[in-house]
Amino acid sequence: MFLRAKLQPCKISRFFSIEATKQAFNNQQGYSPITQQLLRLLKKCITIKQVQQIHTQMLIYSIEKANYLLSNIIDLKYFNYATLLFSHIHSPNEYAFNIMIRGLTTTWQKFDLSLELYYKMKSLGLKTDNFTYPFVFMCCGNLLAVELGKLAHCEVVKNGLFVDFHVGHSLITMYSRIGKMGFARKVFDEMSRRDLVSWNSMISGYAQTGCSREAVGLFMEMRNEGFEPDERTLVSVLGACGDLGDVNLGNQVEEYVVEKRMELNSFMGSALINMYGKCGDLVSARRIFDGMKKKDVITWNAMISGYAQNGLSEETISLFNAMKETGVNLNNITLVSVLSACASIGALDVGKCIHDYASRRGIKHDIYVATALIDMYAKCGYLDDAYQIFESMPRKNEVSWNAMISALAFHGRAQEALSLFERMSLKSSDSRPDDVTFVGVLSACVHAGLVDEGRRLFDLMSSSFGLVPKVEHYSCMVDLLSRAGRVYEAWEFIEKIPQKPDEILLGALLGACQKLKNIDVGERVMQLLLEMEPSNSGNYIISSKIYANLRRWDDSARMRQLMRQKGVTKIPGCSWIEMDSQHVEFRAGSSSHPIADEIHQALDLLYEEMAIEGYVPNVNLV
Known about the structure:
Blueprint: H1 2-7, H2 18-26, H3 33-43, H4 48-60, H5 66-75, H6 79-87, H7 94-107, H8 111-123, H9 133-143, H10 146-158, H11 165-177, H12 181-190, H13 196-208, H14 212-224, H15 231-244, H16 247-259, H17 266-278, H18 282-291, H19 297-309, H20 313-326, H21 332-345, H22 348-360, H23 367-379, H24 383-392, H25 398-410, H26 414-427, H27 435-448, H28 451-465, H29 471-483, H30 487-496, H31 503-516, H32 519-532, H33 537-549, H34 553-565, E1 574-579, E2 582-587, H35 596-612
Helix pairs in contact: 3-4, 5-6, 5-7, 7-8, 7-9, 8-9, 9-10, 9-11, 10-11, 11-12, 11-13, 12-13, 13-14, 13-15, 14-15, 15-16, 15-17, 17-18, 17-19, 18-19, 19-20, 19-21, 20-21, 21-22, 21-23, 22-23, 23-24, 23-25, 24-25, 25-26, 25-27, 26-27, 27-28, 27-29, 28-29, 29-30, 29-31, 30-31, 31-32, 31-33, ...
């Protein structure tokens, strides 16, 4: 309202007489009084309507101060108004270009338009400076435009702007964003002076690109140089500690936070929770979480994700229910974490509730939520629901395709999985098969016994997609050949693996050797497995059974005795079902269940009916 009272043309005379106004415009020394008054009012504008009123007065009194207007319009985030005003500026100067480039970059994230304006600025012969390049580098980093970034870097060096802190920091951030950490470190090392922002930019770059060890190393170097870390430093280091599993350094960071009485806000608190969660210390993570006075969605998500990533699905769902009661708005990260927990334990009812919530909130087509729903429905046995969600997704990424292909494969629908793989390879414009895709299709071949097709796909990885097979792919091929009874070919495959075979791969082959009573390959696999996993009871038991099947009783007894000598005990098998939205767990050999007698009676009836049908159990494999 203050503008309406002061700036309507009929009321301008309250401030200036006509004579005074004329005298002010004729004055060549500085701005006229009306100009000064308008600019003062412009600084106070908080709505676009107020800015428009000021603009109207400037046009009436022929005051050309477009740069001031442009800056205010950008601060108020009106894109169309800003671009229209800029296009009507006659011969815009460096300042006008710089503030417009800044607005396009930071306010609207229109990085391509910002770079277009930068090149237009250069084509007009205007001087680019230390106010231009930080935003140019920000654009290059977000667009992954490495070559354009390098050219701008050369111009900075040529024009002597490298000494500017902001330019140097933005260069480090750009190279970090595009994954060129060698270039980022070179910029950092060549800085004649470094402040805390310089160190933070480099440490953050390392942490965000997975160079966690380098991030921690640089943090130590920074401390030796006498710099005191701030919140941003510590959050980056905590992320690196989590990736490395370095809970000791993480503890030291927490002690520093307490010692310096730093605020345990959402930023710092969630970083500590994430670190402890990744290190598997859920007790400390929960201690931090419970100790926070204010918990926003980021804090809740950190704790929920920590439980989910550590396989504590019941705790994940319980905390999710508590979060809903507080009234905190759930977001896509919350839903993805909880859906992951639902998939792990088959909590279909909770998963359906989340699906309904996502539909009501309009986020069921979010690419991450939809993919998590596919995984949840597939693992709960509702494959058709999973496929329906997949087909309804407006946009799919590699993870979406992989989730659906893997779901079809593990449900034994191999031909559909292979057909979807072909569709992804030939028709998808935004996704290309990756390592995980091939694990899915090779698994489909395993379940269907498609040996030749599996070999073709394995060869296709490198010949058509330029992918190097990993242990997981070799494991699928060994499993495929083992199930087909071709254990010698499977062993040859193991010998070709460039890296050391893992226990999953060898376990698949040992199981095949047990089934086929092949002691030749079986003993070779046994030796490797017992060296790799001396505490795994399954390896001893299967080895014992292989010898027993061949009636080599002494060797069978030796394996059992070796197991006892090493103090290895067999972990009882367990399973669970969902009943009235509650999960009921069953453990082999346990009779502690409240309705154990009724369960055994039902099982006895089933056994009798199976015997009547002529079923004879194969006790050799039990």
